[in-house]
């Protein structure tokens, strides 16, 4: 997927990645590695000031290779979204697999904390905070990469549904914006509330 040739990347995303995901249930492992590679590619770039510990040391300057790597890995994350969503639906304790969205009733059951739903939690406890952190790390001029992130977020809200957008995604983004008090965490289990509240990806 990180090959310098665009043709190789396209074939890998279209043919190889779905095959690997379908072979032996490797989705969880791929997602763990994928997010860490995306963030590492941004963090490896030198800071704007060149001096770690200064006020703007978190701002990075992307080289061509890092920019390409981040872009293709974000494209890979987008290609994996249907698999991620399907796994969340299949593992939900209260959704009929024929349904294709996360309903408010499912979120209410999830909020009780009585059932484990790790395939669902990954999106708002790992993926969204890491993408927000990436957006904060990117230099101001990297609008094309922010556009890719934005399209992914739109695709997530489209697949997971309006209730997920309103009750799960919005509180995560309010926390990231530093607005801890405005987020409604009614639909988060207590154990996850503390995890999400304590995480401001842009700090």
Hey, roughly how much beta strand do the residues contain? under 5%
Radius of gyration: 18 Å
What spatial form do the alpha-carbon principal axes imply?
globular
Number of strands: 0
**What's the pLDDT, averaged over the residues?**
85
Q: Helix content range of the residues, please? A: 55-70%
Number of domains: 1
Largest sheet: none
The stretches of 5 or more residues where confidence is low (pLDDT under 50) are none
Helix/strand structural class: mainly alpha
From N to C, what is the helix and strand string? HHHHHHHH
Number of helices: 8
Q: Please report the distance between the alpha carbons of the first and last residues.
A: 30 Å
Feature tags:
203 residues; mainly alpha
What's the layout of helices and strands?
Blueprint: H1 6-22, H2 27-43, H3 64-91, H4 104-111, H5 118-137, H6 143-160, H7 162-176, H8 190-197
Helix pairs in contact: 1-3, 2-3, 2-5, 3-5, 3-6, 5-7, 6-7
What does this structure look like?
By secondary structure, this protein is an all-alpha fold. It has helices at 6-22, 27-43, 64-91, 104-111, 118-137, 143-160, 162-176, 190-197. The two termini are 30 Å apart. It has one domain (6-197). 65% of the residues lie in helices and 0% in strands. InterPro entries: RELCH. One of its GO terms (biological process) is intracellular cholesterol transport. One of its GO terms (cellular component) is trans-Golgi network.
């Amino acid at each position: 997927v990180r090959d310098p040739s665009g043709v190789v990347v396209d074939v890998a995303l279209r043919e190889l990645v779905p095959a690997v995901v379908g072979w032996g249930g490797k989705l969880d492992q791929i997602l763990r590695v994928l997010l860490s590679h995306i963030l590492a590619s941004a963090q490896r770039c030198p800071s704007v000031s060149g001096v770690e510990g200064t006020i703007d040391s978190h701002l990075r300057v992307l080289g061509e290779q890092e920019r390409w790597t981040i872009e293709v890995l974000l494209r890979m994350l987008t290609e994996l979204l249907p698999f991620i969503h399907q796994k969340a639906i299949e593992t939900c304790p209260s959704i009929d697999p024929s349904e294709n969205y996360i309903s408010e009733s499912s979120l209410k059951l999830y909020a009780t904390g009585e059932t484990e739903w790790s395939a669902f939690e990954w999106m708002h406890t790992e993926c969204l905070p890491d993408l927000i952190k990436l957006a904060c790390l990117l230099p101001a001029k990297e609008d094309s990469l922010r556009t890719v992130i934005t399209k992914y977020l739109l695709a997530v809200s489209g697949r997971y549904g309006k209730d997920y957008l309103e009750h799960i995604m919005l509180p995560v983004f309010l926390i990231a914006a530093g607005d801890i008090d405005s987020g409604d965490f009614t639909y988060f289990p207590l154990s996850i509330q503390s995890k999400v509240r304590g995480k401001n990806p842009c700090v």
